[in-house]
Amino acid sequence: MDRAAIIGVGMTKIEKSKVRETFADMAWEAVNKALADAGMSIDDIDNVVTTSSDFWDGRTISCMAVGDASGAADKNTSCVEGDGTYGAFYGYTRALSGSYKTTLVTGHSKGSQCISSLITNASFDPICERGLGMDMITACAMQANAYMNRTGLRPEDMAMVSVKNHGNALKNPMAQLPMNITVSDVIKSEMIADPLHKLDCSPVSDGCCAVIIAHESVATKFKQKPVWIRGLSLCTDSFFFGDRDLARSNALVEAAKNAYKMAGIKDPKKEIDIVELYDAFTYQELLWLEEMGLADYGKAAKLLEAGEFNINGPLPVNPSGGLLSGHPVIAAGLYRIAEVVMQLRGDAGEHQVKKAKTGIAHGVNGLCGQSHCVWILDKER
Amino acid sequence: MTTKQKKGFEDSYVVEGKMALPYTYFAGSVGSKFITTVRDEKKIMGVRCPTCNLVYLPPRQVCDKDFTDIRDNWVDVGNSGTVTNFTVVRYDDKHMPRKAPFVLALIKMEGADTPFMHILEECKFEDVKIGMNVEAVFAKETTNTILDIDHFKPVAERASIQERNAGRKKWVADNENAVHGKQKGGKPDMSKPVIIAAALTGAATMRNQNPSVPYTPAEFATEAYKCWKAGAAMVHVHAREDNGMPTHDHERIRATYNAIKDKCPELIVNLSSAVGMGKTAEQRISQIIAVKPDMASLNTNTMNFSIVDRKTGKIFIEYVFENTFTMLQEFGKAMEENGVKPEIECYDMGGLDNTLLIAKQGFFSEPMNFNFVWGVAGGQAFRSDAFIAMMNAIPANANFTTCGVGTDQFPCIMQSCILGGHMRVGLEDNIKMPNGALAKGSYEQVEVAVNIADSLGRAVATTDEARAIMGLRKK
């Protein structure tokens, strides 16, 4: 099988509200940063994949809206609706198709301009569910409850994730919410939907991220050192909540298993050096780690407490601060990829982890992790 | 549209807009029927997948697990269920159907396998628990939406049998002063707690007749546990293979027996010494000796034991169930020698007389425990007067229970309860409820038996009391 690599990344700072920037402004910044990072000009890009969602963009056919700022004029352009990791997945398959050499993938959103809860409410079944007021937060609150009920996880355990990730963000200039907080601060923060406190939830954010994926034949032709895509898989669970076991994530188990298999990874606990995952809510970091096989089921909180996932621990998780420190919907998964790429290259600056050869970037589509996309990236081919 | 400028951002116009796009949603034929049934009949319907047997709620067209078209397999899932998950919504928003705070829950309806979402009201937030029982409250005025179920509320909990029994005086045998019903001028002794037994499978009830029939040891354990929680003191077991065939394999029978005992250690387990059609005498008794259950069935006469169409009289399966005098003697002795109390199965008066004849040898320990079986094609159908004749024929200090095939089940146990006897229910004998609906499990029939006991003012026996009454070994 052919190989592909990520040869350039660029991201805007994640902010609560980029009042002075349009989607195109954000894309312009991220794309130019990615091109500069790769040592490329826009003419070196032969196709573009944008990632967007009509309702988050507040316009229909949103896929065509940031083409100009992404340098897509006169190029083969396509769009993926969903998280950025899925756009990048498409970009990767294009690279493998043999028809494309260099794919630019972007993902953008401005949560500040919309009411996310109304958008996520409208994702529920219009006949049987929508009228009941379900949305992302109430749904994830139920999932947190299911997970706590199954594993005995306590609110304090979830709060530790918030403490760690907001703490990590102190060293990441791109993060929106660097905070020095304690477990008690999290527990005392406003209850949004039981058992989720405000500081268990990721914020509303604006941001854009771009990555450049190259086929192996051109991966080393540009300035930047390529980071290789070793394993990649996605898997989707049932739509209706009642059809799923909310306390588990079979889709993530499958996606991770297939990604490990593709990468030839036998013992992920030993072979993975750094993880950037989709912690839209505190409990998700623990649940996702367990379902990816990086901790035994119900045991991630113990490892977290022991410092295993700290930035200087044996398996740093979300050294960037994760989604809890900035959650631009759609772009969030691309940020995970870009962060892992920088960590593996040793370019992460102040939040650089010590030893990182192989890393996981993880994205989610759908509510309560209905679908998961797992990337295994490696600094060596 | 209006425009506004944030303070400090006077150079940046912000336009207030709205994505309000009218849309008509077709509910689909399945969704339409679901909503209209809720509206018109105040009934919640799901669909069952004929391939994997899962009952889906909300109903849909295609099974998510095996890609089967399931749209026409409607089942009534009942109006009550269990909370599997919930949250207290603490924020107000345009899309919320209630003012915060309120509870949203995932609710698994009694007859469904997948929980669905709804609002939970009429209870304190701190009382909401995963596993609590709730029931639907239908809206007074229809909106033609899912909110025609206005909300769910907690079901008033009936104290469990175990709780009720913990609150009453324990029954103890009073052999000195005990008087048999016959000696009290036919007045039955209603002071004795009634023992409810559940026959979980039998040899012939299959899953295509009732999907709740257990096959594996784990399924037996789950079913037995439900029956015990519902009020049964004993379960009667014919072990099955994974494919449902009755088995005489010692290991499988022991695994089934142990699985039940592990899940509910105090429950009395009564194994069949009939096992299933075509088993040899050796196959039938050796497993009893090997496993040594608390109790085992002892069959009393060679008889037709067939499957005959009840309406047309057409013979489907012809079978002679062999229980010679020698077998009655040898099985009975083997059980008594191994501490296994025989449950003496009488399919008619002849079987009872056979037993009394052999009993003259003196090997049966007291008290003897008889089960009057009604409605086997080859035995006698249930008749009230025949019941009384049977009762009058057993020894003075013997116990009697009863079971009936199909529609004989509930009348015969009711009569037994009235006469101071005991009751056996379960899917072995009958797959249905009194109203003709499929029983969700033997436990549902146990609940009917408990209601009968309650109506007559008889206490339901604990497992300890049942052991004392029937003279079983200590657990």
What's the arrangement of secondary structure elements?
The complex is a heterodimer of chains A (381) and B (475).
Chain A: E1 4-11, H1 23-38, E2 47-52, H2 54-57, E3 76-81, H3 84-97, E4 102-110, H4 116-121, H5 136-151, H6 155-169, H7 183-188, E5 191-193, E6 196-197, E7 206-215, E8 227-236, H8 250-263, H9 268-271, E9 274-276, H10 282-291, H11 300-305, H12 332-345, E10 358-365, E11 371-378
Parallel strand pairs in A: 2-3, 2-4, 9-10
Antiparallel strand pairs in A: 1-7, 1-8, 4-7, 5-6, 8-11, 10-11
Helix pairs in contact in A: 3-12, 6-10
Chain B: E1 2-4, E2 14-16, H1 28-41, E3 45-48, E4 55-56, E5 74-76, E6 80-89, E7 102-109, E8 116-120, E9 133-138, E10 149-154, H2 161-166, E11 196-199, H3 217-230, E12 234-237, H4 250-263, E13 268-271, H5 281-291, E14 295-299, E15 303-304, E16 307-308, E17 315-317, E18 320-321, H6 325-337, E19 341-346, H7 349-359, E20 369-374, H8 384-393, E21 399-404, H9 409-418, E22 423-425, H10 442-456, H11 463-470
Parallel strand pairs in B: 11-12, 11-22, 12-13, 13-14, 14-19, 19-20, 20-21
Antiparallel strand pairs in B: 1-2, 3-4, 3-5, 6-7, 6-9, 7-8, 9-10, 15-18, 16-17
Helix pairs in contact in B: 3-4, 3-10, 4-5, 5-6, 9-10
Verbal overview:
The complex is a heterodimer of chains A (381) and B (475). Chain A is an alpha/beta fold and 381 residues long. Chain A has helices at 23-38, 54-57, 84-97, 116-121, 136-151, 155-169, 183-188, 250-263, 268-271, 282-291, 300-305, 332-345; strands spanning 4-11, 47-52, 76-81, 102-110, 191-193, 196-197, 206-215, 227-236, 274-276, 358-365, 371-378. Chain A has a domain at 4-115 and 205-215: 3-Layer(aba) Sandwich (Peroxisomal Thiolase, Chain A, domain 1). Chain A contains twelve helices and eleven strands. The mean pLDDT of chain A is 96. In chain B, helix 3 (217-230) packs parallel to helix 4 (250-263). Chain B has helices at 28-41, 161-166, 217-230, 250-263, 281-291, 325-337, 349-359, 384-393, 409-418, 442-456, 463-470, and strands at residues 2-4, 14-16, 45-48, 55-56, 74-76, 80-89, 102-109, 116-120, 133-138, 149-154, 196-199, 234-237, 268-271, 295-299, 303-304, 307-308, 315-317, 320-321, 341-346, 369-374, 399-404, 423-425. Chain B is 27% helix and 20% strand. Chain B has two domains: 24-154, OB fold (Dihydrolipoamide Acetyltransferase, E2P) (Beta Barrel), CATH 2.40.50; 185-470, Aldolase class I (TIM Barrel). Chain B is of the alpha/beta class and 475 residues long. Chain B is built from eleven helices and 22 strands. At the A-B interface, helix 4, helix 5 and strand 5 of A face helix 1, strand 6, strand 7 and strand 8 of B.
